[in-house]
Fold this sequence. Notes:
single chain; mainly alpha; 20 helices; globular
Amino acid sequence: MSTLKRFFKDTVIYGLATVLPRLMGIILVRLHTDALPREGYADVASFYVGAAFLNIILTYGMETAFFRFFSKSDKKEKVYSTVFIALIISTLLISIVLYACKTPILQFLELPESYFWYLAGVVLLDTLVVAPFAYLRARGKALRFAGFKLANLFVFVALNFFFLWAIPKFNWYFEWYDTSDIRQYIFIANLMASIVTLLLIAPEFFRVKAVFDKQIFKKLWSYGWPIMIAGLAFVVNEQLDKLFINKMLDKDTGGAYAACYKIAVFMTIFIQAFRLGAEPFFFNHAKEKNAPTTYALILKYFVIVGAFGLVIITGFVDIIKDELVKDTSYHIAMEIVPYVLLANLCLGIYHNLAIWYKLTDKTKYGMYFSIIGAIITICFNVFLIPIIGFMASAYATLAAYGTMMVLSYIFGKKYYPIPYELNRISLYLLLAIVSSGVSFYIFRANYLVSAILLGIFALVIFLMEGKQLKAIIKRS
């Protein structure tokens, strides 16, 4: 099996484990926005902002560090064991700190103190399974990985429908069911799903002998801590806008913004599936002579698929929004969608470009780029939300990810040159942006025009890439 064929196969499997949860997430957006007022949905968004920050702190870059050292070490099992033990010990220690700081954390997120145990439980349990899941990916156990992820999804979705739909619809009575605060059942469903995942993956804990190697850990920590800082800055870029809007405008607007932001989930599905398949692939094939050429080819087709997504979603966004968020009171923030979609495409390109600093062990550059993006995000939100409202947050997301993408490309040329087809990539991006802008701002809801623009884009891709695609398929 060719390396590219293996890459695409793994990406499809990981994509299944990613696409289905995201697609179910779309259904849950409809369920949640139907069941909750905008203010309540803003609280759900705040909860997951807090979870995102805590997940980065608790994993402190160990997942990416694991892949880096697992791929090049002749002591692979010892690398896994060291990461796993380190995460268990640090999780227990950090949980004590979290409990001591629970009041300021929840005040910052504007959540009731009763939610602390849900938040802490979810992030702590999810941290404990990071190493086993990474070990499955590193060993190419994509199907097993997907199975565990899909089991988590089933429990989470089933409980959401039970708590938020079945009980109210059929007027079932349970003494423990609190109708005055149904938001909490979203978090309870998440906690239960995390418990099930931990039980399922528990046998992976004992696959190798428990050994903690101090020298390996020092290398892992040295490699991983800049990734942790970069991860925190990334969460600022990705999540903090929801809190800014809640605090600087109001939770009703924040809830609408968070719901419309979810329409970009189609782009994030593709990006996340790509990352799950790409990260182990990039590390495992770094020593091959044609690795840079392969990386360049992957980026080009990543951009092509992402650009297709941009054109399709913006062209048919009104059909999507009516299915995704039925409550029209949430639609006040629809204008953010094209900017958030393009921003996420830039983020996906950045993740692809970022392989240079991961392979050269210059992870501090990822930290620098993310910090720059975080500064842009904070400045845009703080200074522009009072002037132009929630659109400032959408502009901030695009400006931050666009800047990070450009910086990574510039520095990557110096430290790890890859022959990217910049002219073609730029052409495809420009064509997608123009087509999307015409569909969204000039011919909104004119689906004939949207279909024509999509057809033109597809024709350009076929004319320029058809021969190469046929050759790749033939070789596979």
